[in-house]
Specification:
single chain, about 20 residues, mainly alpha, about 90% helix, about 0% strand, rod-shaped
């Protein structure tokens, strides 16, 4: 379960980073 949470966490972080860059 920990690994599964890591995947979505990275995706969310990447999405937030992209929005912050804009």
């Amino acid at each position: 379960m920990s690994g599964n949470l890591k995947y979505p966490k990275v995706t969310f972080d990447r999405k937030v980073n992209s929005r912050r860059l804009v």
